[in-house]
Amino acid sequence: MQLTSPRLRAALLAAASLTLVAAVLPPPKALGIGDPLFPELGNPGYDVLAYDLSFTYKDNRSPLDAVTVIDARAQEPLERINLDFTNGTVAEAEVNGEPARFESVAEDLVLTPARPVAAHMPLHIVIRHTSDPRGRSDGGWVVTDDGLAMANQADAAHRVFPCNDHPSDKAYFTFRITAPAGLTAVANGVPGALPARRAAAPTTWTYRTVHPMATELAQVSVGDSAVVRGTGPHGLPLRDVVPAADRQKLERWLKKTPGHIEWMEQRVGRYPFENYGVLIARAKTGFELETQTLSLFEHGLFTEEGYPEWYVESVMVHELAHQWFGDSVTPRAWSDLWLNEGHATWYEALYADGLGKYSLERRMREAYQRSDQWRAAGGPPAAPKPAAPGQKIGLFRPAVYDGAALILYALRQEIGAEAFDRVERSWVGEHRDAVAGTEDFVRLASREAGRDLGEFLKPWLYGSTTPPMPGHPEWSGAKGA
């Protein structure tokens, strides 16, 4: 029988090509880029430039229908393309407009394109799949009382969508979220054209980032939410997302954000993104999270008794500080996490000190007393031990919070407040929208101090015991107390 349809002929030829390619290639395997803490995380051979993510939400008990579109560039010849993805079902995949074979291996989705991709050539990948919020509780979708939110740190974005799930590969994002009538969908970045709502009909909401973002910082929330808009320093658009029923109760907290931003800008320079706000979710997570431009907070932090006002504010400043330290300047590897959490903890502590509630020196001395114990339990701040299997959040230990802030305190004691302030401003200014690691920080601090700080910082960063604190010889005897 002769084939008369060019499209049918092309489809059959593509399928035949896939079968032939699969026959000569070895079995697919999970790959990684060798991150010290997550060796199978990330994938070699390409650089992602942009994600376009579409989600159709029904309820928080059902898988979402999703389409992930990835634009990337091959860095080397690729016969196969590995993506990180799990907790969803793939229906079909395309690479550069042609059907691609797909297989799941461990937590990788391995694509075999119809023809090999040459080095330096563009990659356009389309994957139709589901995204399942049920089951695993180690990151990804967070089920809320009225919908869903995301918490992708440390390596959980691939539980939501196929991606190169490592912070070193930042990209631009577009989100298209379809939700039932009566619900509101939000995501990182700025909204597209306002959705045209129709009674009893689903609505599609579109957002895009203006700056590149790591996969672990992506945020999508669907719920019965109110979007509260305001203005921050220099006309910065503010957008807070809160449970609609609690809007009035929460507004007194939302009004504090402009002052927090102004306080941070006085210390490190202009806010680095297109907008900012807090996302308050009706869920118990046990943490708050610095998702880019829209920080995730537990509802209970603002409504439950027992949290002093100064403490709540300092936590808000912690997540805001991450917009500079961790979001704009993103860690090169997960062992550089101390640069995120140490700086956020530093500004949290500095803010509390300014309120006269918990002095910085007291907090640092208390951290110093516990530092050796933290290092023994979890490793030094810049070389943390891997988290236990199935407990990825276990990476977030005291050593990378107060233990890392203690390094910054020691640095300021050693080089003086003026040079330290130059280090902070230069760090976020020179590495804006980029990735940087511990060695980069040591080099920059040495430059701003006018001398090599490598020998001084090395034991603070990597030592099994805590060095003497400059300017505080009396602290030495307190260690281990």
TrEMBL record:
Domain Aminopeptidase N-like N-terminal stretches: 153-193
The protein's required cofactors: Zn(2+)
Enzyme kind, highest EC tier: hydrolase
A matching Pfam family: Peptidase_M1
EC numbers, comma separated: 3.4.11.2
All copies of domain Peptidase M1 membrane alanine aminopeptidase, residue ranges: 309-460
Keywords for this protein: Hydrolase, Metal-binding, Metalloprotease, Protease, Signal, Zinc
Keyword Protease attributed: yes
Extent of the signal sequence: 1-22
SUPFAM superfamilies named in the record: Leukotriene A4 hydrolase N-terminal domain, Metalloproteases ('zincins'), catalytic domain
InterPro entries associated with the record: Aminopeptidase_N-like_N, Aminopeptidase_N-like_N_sf, Peptidase_M1, Peptidase_M1_aminopeptidases, Peptidase_M1_dom, Peptidase_M4/M1_CTD_sf
Name used for this protein in its record: Aminopeptidase N
The organism of origin for this protein: Streptomyces goshikiensis
